[in-house]
Design a protein that fits this description.
With 272 residues, the chain is of the alpha/beta class. The protein has helices at residues 4-7, 25-39, 67-79, 95-105, 126-136, 154-163, 179-183, 196-208, 221-233, and strands at residues 54-61, 84-88, 111-115, 142-146, 168-170, 189-192, 212-215, 241-242, 263-265. The chain has 9 helices and 9 strands. It starts with a helix and ends in a 7-residue tail after the last strand.
């Protein structure tokens, strides 16, 4: 939860003073829950015009498992209704072994989103990453490559994108501002998330440029709910949203949002 010092100045004030706020996302989304419950409308009605009733969602692991553990994770995700699994590449593990292990158990059409975090050791370059991507291209289960290079290597990103048949994802936290990276053609898809005001502004801007976005906000079921609300109003937020609700045994909600054939419906109750 946000520290009390962030909450104290809001006490006694109307949450409607803080539309499109830039607070900590837990606090910011809680205000939308209050406003939605007060008006008896779902949160998306306070964010914009809803464009879709459901969104694709991804299961997630922070990475580090053995190939067999990764295969077990894939089976768990399939059993829970997911068709996409994101995992952080680990320089101490063989990503090809992970890929082959996943292929042995995943159903047709299942996809992996590999996040290289752009900071492998040693620092990755076009020369070191391109052979890996070319090998992964031989495996249809690999659907996305995120942050293959450090974010300062603008020309490297452009070269990899031109040579890769797998979509390249820019994983947020842009060095140049976000839209500048898109203007330079660094990636095919841009990840957005974090505070509400910035997410909506960037999401609308990417929509005007007809560039797909992926929303990622780590948290449990309440965070997934708000992410679905935001994704439903942004024009090109048709990429899979990523949370950690499938990893959270500590979730405080009575139930989780169902995943059916890779999709979760946007909640329709008041608030989140």
């Amino acid at each position: 939860p946000p520290p009390f010092s962030m909450v104290e100045p809001l006490i006694g004030r109307s949450p409607f003073e803080f539309m499109n706020n830039t607070f900590n996302l837990g606090l910011g989304s809680a205000l939308y829950d209050v406003m939605g419950k007060y008006l008896e409308v779902p949160a998306y009605k306070l964010l914009g015009q809803k464009l879709r009733d459901a969104g694709t969602v991804a299961a997630w692991s922070w990475g580090g498992p053995s190939p067999q553990q990764f295969a077990d994770d894939i089976l768990r995700a399939v059993d829970e209704g997911y068709t996409i699994f994101k995992i952080h590449a680990n320089p101490l593990m063989d990503i090809m072994e992970w890929t082959r292990a996943a292929e042995e158990v995943a159903p047709p059409g299942f996809k992996i989103h590999y996040d290289f975090t752009g900071r492998s050791s040693p620092t990755p370059t076009v020369g070191s990453m391109l052979p890996i991507i070319q090998e992964l291209e031989r495996h249809p289960i690999v659907g996305w490559i995120e942050d293959p290079l450090p974010r300062f290597d603008v020309e490297g990103w452009r070269q990899l994108r031109a040579k890769s048949r797998i979509p390249i994802v820019h994983g947020g936290q842009p060095m140049l501002g976000g839209i500048q990276e898109a203007m330079l053609g660094m990636a095919d898809i841009y990840m957005i998330g974090g505070d509400i005001g910035d997410t909506l502004a960037r999401g609308i801007a990417y929509g005007k440029a007809n560039i797909q976005t992926i929303l990622q906000n780590t948290g449990g079921t309440l965070m997934k709910a708000f992410t679905l609300h935001m994704a439903s109003v942004l024009p090109t937020a048709t990429g899979h949203s990523i949370n950690l609700d499938d990893q959270c045994e500590w979730d405080i909600t009575a139930e989780m949002i169902p995943v059916v054939e890779g999709f979760s419906r946007v909640p329709e109750g008041p608030g989140l």
